[in-house]
Amino acid sequence: MADDSTNPQRPELKNDRYLRALQKQPVDATPVWMMRQAGRYLPEYKATRAQAGDFMSLCKNAELACEVTLQPLRRFPLDAAILFSDILTIPDAMGLGLYFETGEGPRFRDPITCKADVDKIGIPDPEGELQYVMNAVRTIRRELKGEVPLIGFSGSPWTLATYMVEGGTSKAFTKIKKMAFAEPATLHQLLEKLADSVTSYLNAQIDAGAQSVMIFDTWGGVLSPRDYKDFSLQYMHKIVSGLKREADGRKVPVTLFTKNGGQWLEAIAATGCDAVGLDWTINIEDARKRVGDKVALQGNMDPSMLYASPERIRQEVATILEGYGNGSGHVFNLGHGIHLDVPPDNAGVFVNAVHELSRPYHKQ
Ligand code: CP3
C-alpha cells in the first residue's frame, strides 16, 4: 500500500494502514491498536517497570520506555505504536511535583489553588525539562525500524487542569468546577498556558519522530455542553490550529478523544482534526452518519469486553465493523484504556479478529 517511491525524502513505512485510515485512503484491512496497550496487563511490562524502580523512572529512561512501547507489538500484530509516557509529564515539568501512590493513581505535591499559583507557572521547554520524552520518541522511532507508525500524545488542557487543581484523580471535580464557575478568569489563564504548552510539546514530539498525535480529553465529558465548549473544546481547537501537520513529506494526522463526548461529535469534528476517538457509549454507525466525510473515527469496543470469551469478543468486533460499514476511515480501538487484569491472550483475539473480519469491508 505504501507509495514511498514518490518521495525520496520519505523514510520507509512498512505498514501504513493506520495513517491511511486516518486520512480515509483505501486500506486492505481495518487498522487496530489499543489505548494503554503497554501496561500492567503484560507480565513483561511489570518486569521492566520493576527494573526501572517506579513508573516515572520508567518514563524517564529512553531505552526502557522504548522497550515497554515495543512489548505489545511483539505479542500482537498491532498497526501502530504509542509513545510510552504519561499525560501528566507537562504539569510535572511545570513544577507541581507528580508522584504515584500505589493503588491510588497520580498525585501532585503542589496543586494549583489560586491565581498566584497560575501566575507562577511557565511554559515548559520540550527540549529542556521534557527532553526525556523527546529522547524516548527518538529512541522508539529508531527501534521501530519503519514497521508501524509511532503515535505521540498529550492530555487536553481541561483534563490536565483537572489533575492540577484537584491534586489527583477525582470523582466529583468540585475544586476545578469551583474555579470554573467562581473564578473563571483564573481557570482560563491556566488553560491558555496549558494550550501553549501542549502545542509546543506535541510539535516537539513531531520533530522528534511522532508520525501522528492524539489528544486525550479524559474528563471533558463531566462538563455541560456549554462549559465543554468554553473550558475544553475551545483549547483543543487552538492546539489543532497550532500543530505541524506534515513531517518527512507525510501528513501527520491528529486525533481528538473526549471520553463521554459522543453528544459533541460534530463540534469536535469541526476543529480541523483528522479523526475523532469514540468511547463505547455511542454506536459507531450513528457517529459515522453524523460526521460524514469530515473526519475518520477511532474506537469503540467496551474495554471490559476483553473479559469475555474469544467467541464473544469476535462477535463484538464483527458488530462494530458492520456498524461502521464499507470503506476506509475507521481505526479500530477500545473505547478507553485496556484494564490491567485482562488476559493478554484475549487482546490477541481482539486484534486478530479486527484484521480477519474487516477485509470484506475493504474490497473495492
Ligand atoms: O496507551 C499507551 O500504551 C501509552 C501509555 C499511556 C499511559 N498513560 C501509561 C501509563 C498513556 C497514553 C497514558 C495517558 C493517560 N495518563 C491518561 C489519558 C488516557 C486515559 O486513560 O484516560 C490519563 C488520565 C493519565 C493519568 C494517569 N497515569 C492515570 C490515571 C494512571 C493510572 C494510575 C494507576 O495506578 O492505575 C497513570 C499511570 C500510568 N500511565 C500507568 C501506565 C502504564 C500505570 C503505571 C504503573 O505502571 O503503575
Can you describe what's shown?
46% of the residues lie in helices and 12% in strands. The chain has 364 residues and is an alpha/beta fold. It has one domain: TIM Barrel (Alpha-Beta Barrel). It has a 7-stranded parallel beta sheet with strand order 1-4-5-8-9-10-11. It has a two-stranded antiparallel sheet with strand order 2-3. Helix 12 (265-269) links the parallel strand 8 (254-258) and strand 9 (275-277). Helix 8 crosses helix 10 (184-208) and helix 13 (284-291) packs parallel to helix 14 (310-324). The chain is globular and about 60 Å long. Residues 35-40, 49, 55, 82, 84, 86-88, 105-106, 153, 155, 169, 216, 218, 337 line the site of coproporphyrinogen III (CP3).
**What fraction, in percent, of the residue positions are helical?**
40-55%
CATH topology value: TIM Barrel
Largest sheet features: 7 strands, parallel
* Beta-strand percent range: 5-15%
Structural class category: alpha/beta
User: Into how many domains do the coordinates divide?
Assistant: 1
- Assign an overall shape: globular
Q: Runs with pLDDT <50, length 5+?
A: 1-5
Helix-strand sequence:
HHHHEHEEHHEHHHEHEEEHEHEHEH
Q: What is the β-strand count?
A: 11
